[in-house]
Amino acid sequence: MRLAINLADREIHKLMPKWPGDPILVHWPYPDLSGHFESDAKKRAVFELTRQALAWRMSQLLDLPLETIHGPELKRALAEIASS
Predict the structure, then answer these.
(1) Model pTM?
(2) What is the mean pLDDT of each run of 10 residues along the chain (84 residues)?
Protein backbone atom coordinates (compact mmCIF):
# COMPACT_ATOMS: atom_id res chain seq x y z
CA MET A 1 0.00 0.00 0.00
CA ARG A 2 1.48 3.35 -1.05
CA LEU A 3 -0.89 5.85 0.55
CA ALA A 4 -3.79 6.16 2.96
CA ILE A 5 -6.15 9.13 2.82
CA ASN A 6 -7.90 10.36 5.98
CA LEU A 7 -11.12 12.28 5.23
CA ALA A 8 -11.96 13.18 8.84
CA ASP A 9 -12.54 16.83 9.69
CA ARG A 10 -9.52 16.71 12.00
CA GLU A 11 -6.22 14.90 11.89
CA ILE A 12 -6.48 11.53 13.56
CA HIS A 13 -3.26 9.89 12.40
CA LYS A 14 -2.71 8.59 15.94
CA LEU A 15 -6.03 6.74 15.73
CA MET A 16 -5.47 5.34 12.25
CA PRO A 17 -4.51 1.67 12.06
CA LYS A 18 -1.02 0.56 11.14
CA TRP A 19 -1.23 0.09 7.39
CA PRO A 20 0.89 -2.52 5.58
CA GLY A 21 3.82 -1.20 3.61
CA ASP A 22 4.25 2.04 5.61
CA PRO A 23 2.13 4.20 3.25
CA ILE A 24 2.21 7.96 2.96
CA LEU A 25 -0.57 9.34 5.18
CA VAL A 26 -2.61 12.12 3.60
CA HIS A 27 -5.19 14.30 5.37
CA TRP A 28 -8.01 15.73 3.27
CA PRO A 29 -10.33 17.25 5.89
CA TYR A 30 -14.05 17.34 5.23
CA PRO A 31 -16.91 18.27 7.57
CA ASP A 32 -18.50 15.59 9.70
CA LEU A 33 -21.54 14.73 7.60
CA SER A 34 -23.16 12.77 10.42
CA GLY A 35 -23.65 15.97 12.42
CA HIS A 36 -26.80 17.95 12.96
CA PHE A 37 -27.84 20.55 10.40
CA GLU A 38 -30.37 23.35 10.69
CA SER A 39 -32.37 21.93 7.81
CA ASP A 40 -32.46 19.16 5.26
CA ALA A 41 -31.60 21.72 2.59
CA LYS A 42 -28.43 22.71 4.45
CA LYS A 43 -27.48 19.06 4.91
CA ARG A 44 -27.97 18.36 1.18
CA ALA A 45 -25.87 21.43 0.32
CA VAL A 46 -23.02 20.34 2.59
CA PHE A 47 -23.13 16.80 1.18
CA GLU A 48 -23.04 18.14 -2.40
CA LEU A 49 -20.14 20.52 -1.73
CA THR A 50 -18.22 17.72 -0.04
CA ARG A 51 -18.91 15.36 -2.95
CA GLN A 52 -17.68 17.95 -5.45
CA ALA A 53 -14.53 18.74 -3.45
CA LEU A 54 -13.70 15.06 -3.01
CA ALA A 55 -14.30 14.37 -6.70
CA TRP A 56 -11.95 17.22 -7.65
CA ARG A 57 -9.19 15.96 -5.33
CA MET A 58 -9.60 12.39 -6.58
CA SER A 59 -9.34 13.68 -10.15
CA GLN A 60 -6.10 15.46 -9.23
CA LEU A 61 -4.79 12.28 -7.58
CA LEU A 62 -5.62 10.17 -10.64
CA ASP A 63 -3.83 12.70 -12.87
CA LEU A 64 -0.54 12.06 -11.05
CA PRO A 65 1.93 9.75 -12.78
CA LEU A 66 1.63 7.18 -9.98
CA GLU A 67 3.74 4.62 -11.86
CA THR A 68 6.80 6.90 -11.78
CA ILE A 69 6.36 9.32 -8.86
CA HIS A 70 7.72 8.19 -5.49
CA GLY A 71 8.89 9.29 -2.03
CA PRO A 72 9.33 13.02 -1.38
CA GLU A 73 8.02 13.96 -4.82
CA LEU A 74 4.78 12.03 -4.20
CA LYS A 75 4.45 13.52 -0.71
CA ARG A 76 4.85 17.02 -2.17
CA ALA A 77 2.24 16.39 -4.88
CA LEU A 78 -0.23 14.99 -2.34
CA ALA A 79 0.34 17.97 -0.04
CA GLU A 80 -0.42 20.32 -2.95
CA ILE A 81 -3.68 18.49 -3.60
CA ALA A 82 -4.55 18.63 0.11
CA SER A 83 -3.94 22.39 0.28
CA SER A 84 -6.07 23.16 -2.77
Answers:
(1) 0.80
(2) 83 70 86 83 92 96 95 93 89
Q: Indicate the pairing of strand 3-6 with strand 24-27.
A: parallel
Residues found in the chain = 84
Amino acid at 56: W
With both helix axes pointing from N to C terminus, report the angle between 71-83 and 40-63 in degrees, rounded to the nearest 10. Answer: 150
Q: Cite the beta strand spans of 1-84 per DSSP E.
A: 3-6, 24-27
The per-residue pLDDT for 81 is 95
78 CB burial (10 A radius; 0-12, 13-18, 19+)? buried
Residue pair 6/28 in contact (Cβ under 8 Å)? The answer is yes
